[in-house]
Amino acid sequence: MKLHDYSQNLYLRIGTIQVIAFILLAVLGIRLYHLQINKGSDYEERAENQRIRIIRIPAPRGAIFDRKGNLLVDSRSTYNVTLTHEPIKDVKAENRIEEYANGLGIETEFLRDRINLLKKRPDYETMVIKENATLRDITWVETHSLEYPELGIQLQPQRYYPLGETLAHVIGYVGEISPKHLEKPEYQEKGFRPGDIIGKGGVEQNYDEFLRGTPGYRKVIVDSRGRIQSEIESVPPQAGQDLVLTIDLDLQRAAEQELRDSATNRGSIIATDPRNGEILVMASAPSFDPNVFVQGSATTEGRAQIAAYWQNEERPLYNRAIQGRYPPGSTWKIPMSVAGLKQNKITVASSNLLCGGGIRIGNKFTRCMGSHGTPPLKYAISKSCDGYYYRLGLKMGIEGFVDLVEDFEYDKRTGVDLPNEKISRTPKYYRKIVEKRYGGKWIDIESVFASIGQVTVDVTPISMLRAVSSVGVGGKLYVPHLLKEFKPSAAIGEKRASNYVEGREGFTYKHPELRTVEMTPEQNKLVLDGMWAVVNGGGTASRISMGTDFPIAGKTGTAQVTELGKDRGRLKDHAWFVGFAPAYNPEIAVIAIIENAGFGGTHAAPAVKNVFQAYVNGGSPPPVEDEEKNVAASENGVPQN
Question: What is the pLDDT of residues 402-417, one digit of tens each?
Answer without folding.
Answer: 999 999 999 999 999 9
